[in-house]
Design goal:
Among the domains are: 86 residues, LOTUS domain-like (Nucleotidyltransferase, domain 5, 2-Layer Sandwich); 69 residues, LOTUS domain-like (Nucleotidyltransferase, domain 5, 2-Layer Sandwich); 206 residues, OB fold (Dihydrolipoamide Acetyltransferase, E2P) (Beta Barrel), CATH 2.40.50.90. The N and C termini lie far apart (65 Å). The C terminus is likely disordered. It contains 15 helices and 22 strands. The radius of gyration is 26 Å and the shape is globular. The chain is an alpha+beta fold.
Length: 537
Amino acid sequence: TKQAQLMEVLKKEVRAMLIAAKAGLTPEQLEEQYMAMVCKPLPLHSLGFQSTLELVTQMPEVVRISSSKNGTLILKAIADDSTKGIAKLVANQKVKPRKASKKTATKANATFPAKNSKNPQSFQTLSARTPVLPGAVKAELQDLLSSSPLLLADLDKAFLRRFGHAFQYRQYGFLSVFEVLRSMSDSVVIEQTKAGSLLVLRKYLASHIEQEEVPQASAAELPPLEPICETESFYQAALPMDLEPVQTQAIDLGGHLKQNQGFEQFPPTPEIPPDAVQNRSLCSLPPLKKKCLVGVIVEFVVSPSQFYIHICSTEASYKLQDLMFEMRHVYSHKVASDKYIMPESAVRPGQLCCVMVSKWWYRVIIHRVINDREVEVFYVDYGHLQIVQKSWLRFLKWHYLKLPAQAIPCSLAWVKPVEGTWSSAAILLFKHLCRFKELVGIVDEYVNGVLYLFLCDTSTKQDVYFHSVLRDMGYAHVCGENNPSQEFEELNPSALYVQPSGKQGNAEVVEPDLHLQQESRDADSETATLKLDGAEL
């Protein structure tokens, strides 16, 4: 029968994958390996199985199931006559111990060699990095699992039903769902059950979410988000990397704004809560040390001379996610939401507040008032400007001032556009280079509050330096110095509205707790050369 033929082929494939894995594979790792090799999931349903564990139990002549010390199930191959030789070679392979390199950036700070050294311009090559799931997408997955565990087989349908768009993990650089889940192992656990792989949110996060049940807000309570840039994707709506820059300018408000009777009326607000933020500013993150290496994610791009980054650190990621969860729980209740409605007199440029986008709440600063119904706001944690409804705004609670603004304004170091301004092709290429990847940034200097840094993609076999790509494509000159960004000189919302960390009594230069401790795969490849227009840095 077709099922029997499929089973025989599958046994050979499973045996081949398990033989190659000296230490064996977990059931989820086997699923991931199969997906990577065959480009489709294990044919569980076609063979009448509910889970990978149930499948391998029907292969006693192929798979040996054991348990590790921590209780994890491990699958190992049982070699047959045709594969005994290969199994013996794999068993005799020696595992190279990883040598701790003195040049490993254990604190994300690589000190450059002295000028009189034999190779004065070299610095270490960081090992290839795994893809990175945007924080907003992580929050969606965590929210999806917050109510109850979910079978892996139901993930796609549940995600689509909950958020109105598919879970397109491949666009972030992941080859399989298991790669995604492995990147979230700190918050999501995969348990093997008879029904299949079960996704469970870790208890610390689940308990945090369950402290207060989130009601489903009706359209009357909170206005729904209108489609932004013709996409339903929450990430694209909230963090639009591909949007053209919004043309903005400061305006003089003059007298008080009048509210027409035909427009939506704001609910009456008897008094402003004592913990509502007024006349206060967020502070920025402390400055980074010159020449240090930092893990970064580019959140929003206008051009190579104007973009915003997030620093990659577990602590910072948790704090921002926790803030998003807490704000959602607080402001999603109608009583609390109505309490923090902003009166017309408070809706003015420079006012720090929060706004709802796709049922999530973000810290923003009002940049300008468009009309009686709309304002343009600056997302302090992501870096972009967006026009939103006034009725979506709420006062920010005082407690949410503690976390510094997470978006850092940046320019690519040592480059200037060939044509005087960046061409559309150059901007598109730069966006493509930055998209959904964790990159390595080499800090050069700060100019007028803007961080100038080199960007490097270490996820490929050879490190890719963005300034070199722009130069080689004929879009940029490498000039060996930093020219002030024309775009940021015209408009830099961070400089307008966010206080430097020094102004808050915290001016010390710090080294962030970043994940740059990975060692190079090849112990002999410890340094690399950053070439700048024929010269070396």
